[in-house]
Specification:
Belongs to the polypeptide deformylase family. Removes the formyl group from the N-terminal Met of newly synthesized proteins. Requires at least a dipeptide for an efficient rate of reaction. N-terminal L-methionine is a prerequisite for activity but the enzyme has broad specificity at other positions. It is a single chain. This protein has a single domain, classed as Peptide Deformylase. The protein has three helices and seven strands, in the order αβββββββαα. Strands 1-2-3-6-7 form a five-stranded antiparallel beta sheet, with helices on both faces. It has a two-stranded antiparallel sheet with strand order 4-5. Strand 2 and strand 3 form a beta hairpin. It starts with 25 loop residues before the first helix and ends in a 22-residue tail after the last helix.
Protein backbone atom coordinates (compact mmCIF):
# COMPACT_ATOMS: atom_id res chain seq x y z
CA UNK A 1 0.00 0.00 0.00
CA UNK A 2 1.19 3.48 -0.76
CA UNK A 3 -0.15 6.99 -1.01
CA UNK A 4 -0.33 8.07 -4.65
CA UNK A 5 -0.31 11.62 -6.07
CA UNK A 6 -3.80 12.91 -6.81
CA UNK A 7 -4.28 14.23 -10.34
CA UNK A 8 -5.56 17.81 -10.44
CA UNK A 9 -8.28 19.47 -12.50
CA UNK A 10 -6.98 19.94 -16.03
CA UNK A 11 -5.33 16.50 -16.20
CA UNK A 12 -6.88 14.68 -19.19
CA UNK A 13 -7.27 11.44 -17.18
CA UNK A 14 -10.07 13.15 -15.22
CA UNK A 15 -12.06 13.60 -18.45
CA UNK A 16 -11.50 10.07 -19.78
CA UNK A 17 -14.17 7.43 -19.07
CA UNK A 18 -12.66 4.53 -17.14
CA UNK A 19 -12.66 0.95 -18.41
CA UNK A 20 -14.57 -1.79 -16.60
CA UNK A 21 -12.56 -4.06 -14.32
CA UNK A 22 -12.37 -7.54 -15.79
CA UNK A 23 -9.77 -9.22 -13.55
CA UNK A 24 -10.22 -9.52 -9.79
CA UNK A 25 -6.72 -10.34 -8.55
CA UNK A 26 -3.94 -9.25 -6.18
CA UNK A 27 -3.17 -6.26 -8.42
CA UNK A 28 -6.76 -5.01 -8.05
CA UNK A 29 -6.63 -5.51 -4.28
CA UNK A 30 -3.44 -3.40 -4.18
CA UNK A 31 -5.18 -0.69 -6.19
CA UNK A 32 -8.08 -0.64 -3.70
CA UNK A 33 -5.58 -0.46 -0.82
CA UNK A 34 -3.69 2.42 -2.48
CA UNK A 35 -6.94 4.29 -3.16
CA UNK A 36 -8.03 3.84 0.46
CA UNK A 37 -4.68 4.94 1.87
CA UNK A 38 -4.50 7.95 -0.46
CA UNK A 39 -8.11 8.94 0.34
CA UNK A 40 -7.36 8.89 4.07
CA UNK A 41 -4.03 10.72 3.68
CA UNK A 42 -5.75 13.48 1.67
CA UNK A 43 -8.76 13.69 4.01
CA UNK A 44 -11.32 12.81 1.35
CA UNK A 45 -14.76 11.23 1.55
CA UNK A 46 -14.01 9.26 -1.62
CA UNK A 47 -11.42 8.69 -4.31
CA UNK A 48 -11.78 7.24 -7.81
CA UNK A 49 -9.02 5.36 -9.64
CA UNK A 50 -8.73 7.99 -12.42
CA UNK A 51 -7.78 10.52 -9.73
CA UNK A 52 -4.53 8.60 -9.24
CA UNK A 53 -4.08 8.04 -12.97
CA UNK A 54 -5.60 4.57 -13.22
CA UNK A 55 -8.33 4.30 -15.87
CA UNK A 56 -10.44 1.61 -14.21
CA UNK A 57 -13.96 1.72 -12.73
CA UNK A 58 -13.00 1.56 -9.05
CA UNK A 59 -13.60 3.95 -6.18
CA UNK A 60 -13.30 4.01 -2.40
CA UNK A 61 -15.38 5.92 0.13
CA UNK A 62 -15.29 6.82 3.82
CA UNK A 63 -18.26 8.77 5.12
CA UNK A 64 -19.51 9.06 8.69
CA UNK A 65 -18.06 5.70 9.75
CA UNK A 66 -19.10 3.85 6.59
CA UNK A 67 -16.09 2.80 4.56
CA UNK A 68 -15.73 0.63 1.50
CA UNK A 69 -15.13 0.41 -2.20
CA UNK A 70 -17.10 -0.32 -5.34
CA UNK A 71 -15.89 -1.84 -8.57
CA UNK A 72 -17.85 -1.37 -11.82
CA UNK A 73 -20.53 0.55 -9.90
CA UNK A 74 -23.96 1.63 -11.01
CA UNK A 75 -26.44 3.58 -8.92
CA UNK A 76 -30.05 4.73 -8.96
CA UNK A 77 -31.89 7.32 -6.93
CA UNK A 78 -34.12 5.71 -4.28
CA UNK A 79 -36.72 8.46 -4.54
CA UNK A 80 -37.20 11.94 -6.00
CA UNK A 81 -35.68 13.80 -3.02
CA UNK A 82 -32.72 16.06 -3.77
CA UNK A 83 -30.05 17.72 -1.69
CA UNK A 84 -28.28 21.00 -2.42
CA UNK A 85 -25.10 21.75 -0.54
CA UNK A 86 -21.35 22.15 -0.50
CA UNK A 87 -19.24 19.73 -2.48
CA UNK A 88 -15.50 19.55 -2.98
CA UNK A 89 -13.02 17.29 -4.73
CA UNK A 90 -9.49 16.14 -4.00
CA UNK A 91 -8.68 16.99 -7.64
CA UNK A 92 -9.82 20.58 -7.01
CA UNK A 93 -8.12 21.19 -3.65
CA UNK A 94 -9.37 23.82 -1.24
CA UNK A 95 -12.48 24.83 -3.19
CA UNK A 96 -16.16 24.09 -2.50
CA UNK A 97 -19.38 24.98 -4.30
CA UNK A 98 -23.01 24.11 -3.73
CA UNK A 99 -24.07 21.26 -5.99
CA UNK A 100 -27.43 19.51 -6.48
CA UNK A 101 -27.46 15.72 -6.03
CA UNK A 102 -29.98 13.01 -5.20
CA UNK A 103 -30.48 12.64 -1.45
CA UNK A 104 -30.85 8.83 -1.42
CA UNK A 105 -29.19 6.34 -3.76
CA UNK A 106 -28.62 2.61 -4.04
CA UNK A 107 -25.35 1.54 -5.63
CA UNK A 108 -24.41 -1.92 -6.80
CA UNK A 109 -21.16 -3.34 -8.04
CA UNK A 110 -18.50 -5.77 -6.89
CA UNK A 111 -15.94 -5.89 -4.13
CA UNK A 112 -12.23 -6.54 -4.76
CA UNK A 113 -12.82 -10.31 -4.61
CA UNK A 114 -15.52 -10.24 -7.31
CA UNK A 115 -18.42 -10.62 -4.88
CA UNK A 116 -21.59 -8.57 -5.52
CA UNK A 117 -22.09 -5.62 -3.20
CA UNK A 118 -24.92 -3.18 -2.56
CA UNK A 119 -24.54 0.15 -0.77
CA UNK A 120 -27.45 2.35 0.28
CA UNK A 121 -26.41 5.95 0.70
CA UNK A 122 -28.15 8.94 2.17
CA UNK A 123 -26.98 12.57 2.34
CA UNK A 124 -23.15 12.70 2.33
CA UNK A 125 -22.68 9.02 1.38
CA UNK A 126 -25.17 9.42 -1.48
CA UNK A 127 -23.25 12.52 -2.61
CA UNK A 128 -19.93 10.62 -2.47
CA UNK A 129 -21.30 7.70 -4.50
CA UNK A 130 -22.62 10.03 -7.21
CA UNK A 131 -19.44 12.15 -7.21
CA UNK A 132 -17.05 9.19 -7.48
CA UNK A 133 -19.14 7.44 -10.14
CA UNK A 134 -19.02 10.68 -12.12
CA UNK A 135 -15.20 10.49 -12.01
CA UNK A 136 -15.41 7.01 -13.55
CA UNK A 137 -17.48 8.50 -16.39
CA UNK A 138 -15.01 11.35 -17.02
CA UNK A 139 -17.28 13.91 -15.33
CA UNK A 140 -15.98 16.44 -12.78
CA UNK A 141 -18.48 17.86 -10.32
CA UNK A 142 -18.11 21.41 -11.65
CA UNK A 143 -19.96 20.07 -14.70
CA UNK A 144 -22.99 19.59 -12.40
CA UNK A 145 -23.08 23.21 -11.17
CA UNK A 146 -25.63 25.73 -12.39
CA UNK A 147 -24.30 28.12 -15.05
CA UNK A 148 -23.56 31.08 -12.74
CA UNK A 149 -21.88 28.96 -10.09
CA UNK A 150 -19.86 27.10 -12.74
CA UNK A 151 -18.62 30.40 -14.16
CA UNK A 152 -17.49 31.53 -10.68
CA UNK A 153 -15.98 28.09 -9.99
CA UNK A 154 -13.91 28.14 -13.18
CA UNK A 155 -12.60 31.61 -12.32
CA UNK A 156 -11.62 30.41 -8.82
CA UNK A 157 -9.95 27.30 -10.28
CA UNK A 158 -7.95 29.38 -12.77
CA UNK A 159 -6.86 31.66 -9.90
CA UNK A 160 -5.84 28.77 -7.63
CA UNK A 161 -2.12 28.48 -6.94
CA UNK A 162 -2.07 24.83 -8.02
CA UNK A 163 -3.85 25.38 -11.37
CA UNK A 164 -1.65 25.00 -14.42
CA UNK A 165 1.27 23.68 -12.39
CA UNK A 166 3.21 20.76 -13.81
CA UNK A 167 1.36 17.64 -12.67
CA UNK A 168 2.99 15.46 -10.04
CA UNK A 169 2.94 12.07 -11.72
CA UNK A 170 4.93 8.96 -11.04
CA UNK A 171 4.85 5.58 -12.68
CA UNK A 172 1.86 3.66 -11.42
CA UNK A 173 2.69 0.79 -9.08
CA UNK A 174 -0.10 -1.05 -10.88
CA UNK A 175 1.69 -2.34 -14.00
CA UNK A 176 -1.36 -3.70 -15.77
CA UNK A 177 -3.33 -0.56 -14.93
CA UNK A 178 -0.59 2.03 -15.39
CA UNK A 179 -2.10 3.82 -18.36
CA UNK A 180 -5.21 5.88 -18.04
CA UNK A 181 -7.64 4.70 -20.67
Amino acid sequence: MSVQPVRLFGDPVLRTPAAPVETFDAELRKLVADLTETMHAEGGAGLAAPQIGVGLRVFTFSVDGTEGHLINPTWTASDAEEQFGPEGCLSIPGLLWDCRRWLNVVATGWDMHGEPIRVEGTAKLARAIQHETDHLDGVVFVDRLDADTRKRAMAEIRAAQWFGAEPVVKVSPHPMFGKAR
